[in-house]
Give the backbone structure.
Amino acid sequence: MARDHVPVQLACRVLHVAESGYYAWRDRPPSNQQVKHAWLTEAIVGIHAASRGTYGSRRVQAELRLGLSIHISHGPVNC
């Protein structure tokens, strides 16, 4: 909505959200889970790019597990 230049007050009213809640959410630092997800996404993208786009999710997961000792389920890799 922000890129459509919808005023915050209008958006909050339509979505039945308090403006103070919106500003609290906007100014909140990223959670540990968000930081971990961003780091893992960078690792997955890096592995995929290093393979020149040939590695699929199974090979990327194997590289994470065997090459980097990062043990995760297949779910995050498939996204």
